[in-house]
Amino acid sequence: MSEFEKQSNEQKILVAAEQEFLTKGFDGARTTSIAKAAGVTHAMLHYYFRTKEQLFERILDEKVSVMSKVLFPAWGDPNLPFLNRLTMIISAHFDFLVENPLLPRFLINEILSRPERYELLQSRISQYAGAVFDNLQTEITKSVEKGEILPVDGKMLFINVMSLNVFTFIAYPLLETAMGDLMADRERFLAIRKAENIEVIMSRILKR
Amino acid sequence: MSEFEKQSNEQKILVAAEQEFLTKGFDGARTTSIAKAAGVTHAMLHYYFRTKEQLFERILDEKVSVMSKVLFPAWGDPNLPFLNRLTMIISAHFDFLVENPLLPRFLINEILSRPERYELLQSRISQYAGAVFDNLQTEITKSVEKGEILPVDGKMLFINVMSLNVFTFIAYPLLETAMGDLMADRERFLAIRKAENIEVIMSRILKR
DNA sequence: ATTTTGTTTAACAGTCTTGTTAAACAATTC
DNA sequence: GAATTGTTTAACAAGACTGTTAAACAAAAT
Fold it and tell me: Are A68 and A124 in contact (CB under 8 A)?
């Protein structure tokens, strides 16, 4: 048994599991369905991952990790002007969501539905979160002092950005249903949304 | 058997089902669990509602209906100035979510997870949606002509409002985890959020 | 009082789903 | 090449869950 094929089976299961869990959630996912999609018997799936729960946690953990790894570094170069940095992180966050459109709904659902999973998130973000918020507030204060922007609470600004960026993807199919014409061209719609989100945030903080 | 108690059983099942479906979703919900919470045997549940699917659809339908009924009228008095009307609908929408905090996640999940349910939403909103968007755009145009606001696309503005209001409730427990202190007092946090959302929308459209 | 109608219970059937196991098989090591 | 280790298959066990049914029971109608 070659090393390639050994990995390949595990990999095929992981790929199929990711698809299944992201689209159907833990409760909706079926290990038999995952095994079938991966082209292995369902006994194989249990051989590699023991239980559905363990397989799920592997996926969830990877996804939380991906999110943290991509988003915290996106906070960008501390030497750039605040407004540039802010624009860049909104943009980076939005682009990340374009590449991972199913992720927000998955994380919100699967973490919220089981309070015991809160700590997974807590442990992954609390190390960064405090520092990020502190840094954000410091930057805001400095920028306010320079007379560039209005005083705002960093956490509120953060929630604003998250709301605008994330909602687009969580509700995408609903929006498509409600306003078909506007969204006929996905690429175009997303480009407009991204620009709009940046515009909204800038309007909120720029001096009038 | 009195009319009261007859209704009471059906009612108890509906109340328990609403709780179960809203917190766990269709896949996570268990008819035995609903029956237990309602204090009836699970055969009773099937006697009244035949299948889990039918019971679920009763709840889903009622929730979609509640949302439509509350939100479209909230569009308010056409004689008021546009900015007042807009403020009022953002506020009414937010207040509605305070009373129904589980609803957005439920609707997004359960409708999105089964494309065959799109048409339920479609049929419920399409009759209003077109008219609402037309009216909104007309009002915007008039207000722009009066020199009150900047020109914006009505649908984009609509998405902005939805994003800001809905996200707060979809992600509430996650936000609590990430920024505990700010959210210690729920009432206070929600009041601040509501004001912030109105402020964000106003900043976006008011002339500078 | 008897029949009819509607409600409730308890037991059960059938299916789906997760997880296990024994045995076959392949690869690697000694 | 024999033994050991790891992989795969097929069959099965156990339980959970939905949904059914027959019979008991209660209420209302005749």
Answer: yes
